[in-house]
Amino acid sequence: MKKLETGVICLLAISMLTGCSSSGELIKSYSNTALNTKSLIIHTDTDDNHDFFAKDLVVFPKSSTVNPAKSDEDAAETTEEETKAADETETDEADETDETKSADETEESLSENDSDREETGIDAKTGLLAGMDSLSDVYAKDIYTRVYPASLTKIMTALITLENANFSDKVTFTEDMVENEYAAKLCGFEVGDELTVEQLFNALLIYSGNDAANALAVHVAGSIEAFTALMNKEAKRLGCVDTNFVNAGGLHDNNHYTSAYDMYLIFNECLKHDEFAETIRHSSYKATYTDAGGETVYATYTTTNQYFLDAYDYPESVRVLGGKTGTTNEAGSCLILYDVDKKENGYISVILGASGSEELYSEMNILLNKIPK
Fold first, then answer.
1. What is the pTM of this model?
2. Of 22, 70, 72, 252, which is the most buried if we count CB atoms within 10 A?
3. Domain 70-373 in this protein, CATH class
4. Rounded CA gap, 357 and 362, in Å?
């Protein structure tokens, strides 16, 4: 990555004094947040130049993104293509397993698709691959475009939980934790059930339970509304200017959106917590808790990550150490992963808005194959 030192001060000075250029507006927007100094991908809004205003940045040039980030007004607007009936919002991620082909058919299909699209990139709405240790910008497509995150929302829910609760805390399931949205992914918790934060945390990330998300939100902040305020405050602190959350689980709302770049920032922050990195590595989780009647309940929560269920194979040149899936009708199929190459260099790969499970994992393999060998 080339660091352009000449002209930096001038660019910043002009931006602050005039406030009239598009790049000046963007710098002002980002400078209102507390930016990290590692693994940041900063959008540049000039044709030929980069604007550097923080240290150790990974910079994707404008040419690597088709559309710049939308304005708040644009994001609030909805089209017929973006909105559907509310009762169709959350697609059960557990159905992904039933939709996949046999292992042999899958491997053949992915191989053909990968070779056909390796040069042209991905067809999903947005995708990103960037290094954590090397600070390398590997691949980007529309990474500043606002899209719906579906259950990738839960990585922010996990982050707020890690920052504000203890795993040993006891949580009694209450009425305001119940999720009534049609087709929401549920762990089956009922009013009066008593669990620990650790159990809910695992059910959240591994099984993608919306009731687990609600329970953690109410436990941490007293209400889901107060919890989403914490989510948005943390997003701003991390430098996410294209993100707004209105719930803890990712159920569709026109005003609930993010970008691939912002998901990168949030996921990167989560990986600083050992509890998070360890949890997303598991293919299942067994919990034993007590229901309202004092009876013991034994439950097993299976991952929604199809790589870990051997429904799809990732390239032999990398290892997938964990991640999070998300699916709604409006968001499409989404996936974020923590990957390492053979030298144990870390990467984060993101795809949002794939048309289905097969395309999602096929195109994720395209990204993973771009990791330097």
1. 0.74
2. 252
3. alpha beta
4. 8
